[in-house]
């Protein structure tokens, strides 16, 4: 047969249709994730109205609702692409946008000794938490998630580190779920350290900033104590949050050398270039943080961008919940609970040691 008789399509023909089909395939799953997100935000709003503080944030509620829905209903093929997109690409965009909330000005003003002490606390907490997790038999990626969540900022740190190290969704959900429970208990129990350890308001604020996972939880733990505790706690907490960027970059270099685990064993990378080792969303995070620090991202723009990042994170957590079999959580629950509890105890000891070493009055 002559090649002249074979019709050929013009170059690029069909590409808009392909792109349109790809977008259309995402819609059903995205709508399910958005519905779970809306429900989670509504529950948080009711919680804030009743208690004044979001002790259980929408991010955690979205995971729990997603798991509950997944238990009752298994998403069909038409929903899977949108759910997978929400769990990965939406989360990566959220991490990028979080950079707009980071400013170096207040950090530098806090003093060299405290800054170095906070960095040392985060590093020691990650190392100790990882060791505890491994002793308890948790796989390396799960151990990293628990360690970073404990040492930096709980749910947000786990969500940011997970795509860099190639963690499975079941590990992400387990780490967030059990860390969230301990985080709430921490907020409720931390004020007991004031009489037990004889802490001043300044010391208590430092302890809260070093140990409580989320910024709203720091406020919940310090506002009842006093304005000084709230100001100090928030500042220290922001320094911990700032550590997220360097820690994620560090783990992006470590990730290719982690032992293969199940699904992560497929297509394990060999030698990679810089832009594959350090994902685009981490570079975006650092770029926005730099722009924010030099004043090119004003407060008027930073606040809505940060809120959007938070919303996108909730959407991605809803997607992760929808992809989890609750029976998997039941199998790892005991070990993860022990790991998170042990890590939190170590963090408390290290934090109190720092307060006394720096002679914070």
From TrEMBL:
Pfam families: Cons_hypoth698. PANTHER family: INNER MEMBRANE PROTEIN YEIH-RELATED, UPF0324 INNER MEMBRANE PROTEIN YEIH. It is found in: Cell membrane. InterPro entries: UPF0324_pro. The chain crosses the membrane at residues 23-46, 52-69, 90-108, 114-132, 144-166, 172-194, 206-229, 241-260, 272-293, 305-324, 336-358. It is a multi-pass membrane protein. This is Integral membrane protein (TIGR00698 family). Keywords: Cell membrane, Membrane, Transmembrane, Transmembrane helix. It comes from the Bacteria. Belongs to the UPF0324 family.
């Amino acid at each position: 047969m002559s090649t002249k008789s074979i019709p050929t399509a013009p170059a690029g023909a069909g590409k808009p249709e392909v792109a349109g089909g790809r977008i259309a395939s995402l819609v059903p799953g995205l709508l399910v994730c958005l519905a779970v997100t809306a429900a989670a935000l509504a529950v948080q709003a009711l919680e804030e109205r009743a208690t004044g503080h979001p002790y259980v944030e929408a991010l955690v509620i979205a995971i729990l609702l997603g798991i509950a829905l997944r238990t009752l209903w298994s998403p069909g093929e038409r929903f899977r692409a949108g759910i997978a997109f929400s769990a990965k690409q939406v989360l990566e965009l959220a991490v990028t946008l979080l950079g707009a909330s980071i400013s170096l000005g207040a950090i530098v003003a806090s003093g060299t000794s405290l800054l170095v002490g906070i960095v040392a606390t985060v590093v020691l907490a990650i190392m100790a938490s990882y060791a505890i997790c491994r002793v308890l038999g948790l796989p390396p990626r799960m151990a990293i998630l628990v360690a970073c969540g404990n040492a930096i900022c709980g749910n947000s740190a786990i969500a940011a580190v997970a795509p860099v190290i190639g963690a499975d969704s079941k590990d992400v959900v387990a780490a967030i779920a059990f860390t969230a429970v301990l985080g709430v208990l921490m907020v409720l129990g931390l004020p007991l350290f004031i009489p037990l350890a004889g802490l001043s308001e300044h010391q208590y604020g430092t302890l809260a900033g070093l140990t409580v996972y989320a910024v709203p939880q720091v406020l919940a733990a310090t506002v009842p104590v006093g304005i000084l505790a709230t100001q100090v706690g928030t500042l220290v907490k922001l320094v911990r949050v700032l550590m997220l960027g360097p820690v994620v970059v560090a783990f992006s270099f470590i990730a290719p050398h982690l032992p293969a685990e199940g699904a992560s064993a497929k297509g394990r990378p060999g030698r990679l270039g810089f832009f594959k080792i350090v994902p685009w969303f981490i570079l975006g995070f650092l770029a926005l943080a730099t722009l924010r620090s030099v004043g090119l991202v004003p407060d008027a723009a930073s606040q809505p961008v940060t809120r959007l990042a938070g919303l996108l994170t909730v959407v991605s957590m809803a997607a992760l919940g929808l992809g989890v079999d609750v029976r998997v959580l039941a199998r790892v629950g005991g070990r993860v609970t022990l790991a998170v509890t042990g890590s939190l105890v170590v963090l408390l000891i290290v934090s109190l040691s720092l307060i006394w070493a720096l002679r914070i009055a």
